[in-house]
Write a structure and sequence with these properties.
By secondary structure, this protein is mainly beta. It is built from 2 helices and 12 strands, in the order βββββαβαββββββ. The chain folds into 2 domains: about 5-10 and about 120-180, Roll (SH3 type barrels); about 25-110, Elongation Factor Tu (Ef-tu), domain 3, CATH 2.40.30. The chain has a 6-stranded antiparallel beta barrel. Strands 10-9-8-7-12-11 form a 6-stranded mixed beta sheet, with no helix packed on it.
Length: about 190
Amino acid sequence: MPSGGLDLHYRATSHSNGVSVDDQDHMVVGRIVRPHGVRGDLLVEPYSETIRSIEAETEVFIGSPQNPYTVLSLRSHRTRMILRVEGCEDRETAEAFRGNEVLIPTQAAEPLPEGVYYRWQILGLAVVEQGGRHLGTVMDILETGANDVYVVQGDGPRELLLPAIESVILEVDLDAGSLLVLLPEGLE
């Protein structure tokens, strides 16, 4: 069954190393850029629209899943978000959060449409050719504009770059942890 064409995954986050989850229970949704104002507000660079699922009185984690904070408010500010959390009352306290990532429990994220996946669901999947030959593991996802490209590392030193398009990615089986692919001619 085709996996959804150009929407094979959803950019839940955008880390330089392609990792979007500290563990399977928490998802990174943004990064604190700096304090905003003098009352403890935090300016957050969202990694996706998933951050908008955060509501007041819910719990987020800042820096790691071991650091929970209760959300007082979250609002848009140009292309970023302003987050206010309990216990962060002034600019000096807010400054300590600079550069930390904001995590939410994975189950708190809105469900995605069928055939659309979070980055963390695609990363680490085994890549298997239609004939059964194991090609490697998805190690990274490159965003090219036209379509995403899955970076597959096999046994050898070379990487395989697979376009994330419906004619190449035939099936995503999260339960089996694999992608079934049909390599285009000349791509080996």
